[in-house]
């Protein structure tokens, strides 16, 4: 029987330090009010427009581990675990793909947040 530690050690794992996280996942909308006049008929229009979010998408091939080695282009069933180096949270958004993942910082942060990543290949 394989122990929990042996199961973890049997997977390929990378430590990627000091990744700059600038993306935010907070959905935003813009409310507007406008007055229109056509042929002396005035109309007031009000509405709301979604402007979405600015998630950051990172490709594994763009990362380098703590030794300076590039990560592979694809990782089978990756699990990305971020650790913020500040008091602002960093989190993976959605599910990781074999080639990329989306990540965001706490929207209350005034600027980018630095984080360390641990990436584990769950299959392979």
Provide the β-strand percentage band. over 45%
Query: How do the helices and strands follow one another from N- to C-terminus?
Result: HEEEEEEEE
Strands of the biggest beta sheet: in what spatial order?
Answer: 1-8-5
Specify the overall morphology: elongated
Largest sheet: 3 strands, antiparallel
Helix/strand/pairing category = mainly beta
What is the radius of gyration computed over CA atoms, rounded to a whole number of angstroms? 21 Å
* Low-pLDDT residue intervals, each spanning 5 or more residues: none
SS field, number of helical segments: 1
Span from first to last CA? Answer: 19 Å
Mean pLDDT: 87
Give the helix level as a range of percent. Answer: under 10%
Q: Total number of β-strand segments?
A: 8
Core attributes:
single chain; 124 residues; mainly beta; three-stranded antiparallel β-sheet; 8 strands; elongated
What is the compact description of this entry?
With 124 residues, the protein is mostly beta strands. The chain is built from 1 helix and 8 strands; from the N terminus they run H-E-E-E-E-E-E-E-E.
What this model shows, in words?
With 124 residues, this protein is mainly beta. The chain is built from one helix and eight strands; from the N terminus they run H-E-E-E-E-E-E-E-E. It has one helix at residues 4-9; strands at 13-21, 24-38, 41-54, 56-59, 78-84, 90-93, 100-105, 113-121. Strand 6 (90-93) and strand 7 (100-105) form a beta hairpin. The radius of gyration is 21 Å and the shape is elongated.
SSE map:
Blueprint (H helix, E strand, L loop, with lengths): L3 H6 L3 E9 L2 E15 L2 E14 L1 E4 L18 E7 L5 E4 L6 E6 L7 E9 L3
Antiparallel strand pairs: 1-8, 2-3, 4-7, 5-8, 6-7
